[in-house]
Amino acid sequence: MRKVTKLKIGEFSKLMQVTVKTLRHYEQLGLLMPSEVDEWTGYRYYTFDQMQRLNSIRDLKELGFSLEEISSLYIDNYHSPSVSQLKQKMQECEQQIKTLLKRRQQLIDMVNAQKNIKTMEKFSIQTLPSIIVASHRSVIKSYSSLGELCVHVIGPEMQRLGCKCPPSGYCFTIEHDKEYRPTDIDIEYCEQVEEMGKDSALIRFRRLEEVPTALCMKHIGDYDHFYESYTEAFKYIEEKGYRICGSPRTVYVDGIWNQEDPSKWLSIIQIPIEKD
Fold this sequence. Notes:
Layout: E1 7-8, H1 9-16, H2 20-28, E2 36-37, E3 44-46, H3 48-62, H4 67-75, H5 83-119, E4 123-128, E5 131-140, H6 145-160, E6 171-175, E7 185-193, E8 204-208, E9 211-220, H7 226-239, E10 242-244, E11 249-254, E12 266-275
Antiparallel strand pairs: 1-3, 2-3, 4-9, 5-7, 5-8, 6-7, 6-11, 9-12, 10-12, 11-12
């Protein structure tokens, strides 16, 4: 009679390069039961048959089968998937490939968008395309309050509404005050989204028309010195023979959310213009 080699759970774990925790989990699922459990000591013993079964489980997992699916195969006494099950996994793989390729392209677009912002000249003339935005308008104490508003109010509400934003993460503010106000600023925060949603008490969805011509200018530094950039921008507009034909936007690229040093904050001022 062939002598059966029995291994304690720790020995089996070490030889098969799988944690004891995983083996206990497989046992709870009824997926890989010990060959023997000593009724007095509670020691679990595994044999060569369990080695083969564990290798089979690993192979199926690598093919994309879940533990529940693998368990069903063994319950039905099928130790390998059927042709139809394999074809189903092939379809799932193809869908995952499409999803990953889409995600890869979105990441490429995001990297390129960031590179374009970082390398753009201080002044540039651009077309701002028509977009759908989720907007929130409120009166804030100061510009420094904007970050907190985005994190604690706007962000959670957009998430609740299921908003999907493009990888470029285009967001900007529009000020509605007719004069400068150091406090109690009437500001509208807009963030580009992929589709129209249902308005809520905090968020309104709308489509912004294309801006055929806009002066885009880099502003590096804190928000208390926007006036310096606006002075430069208006000088450029006059020298180039343009006039302003719409409300300026302020796009926030780097700020307190990702850069502690205010001197390195990057914003883009966008001013709709047209030729005189």
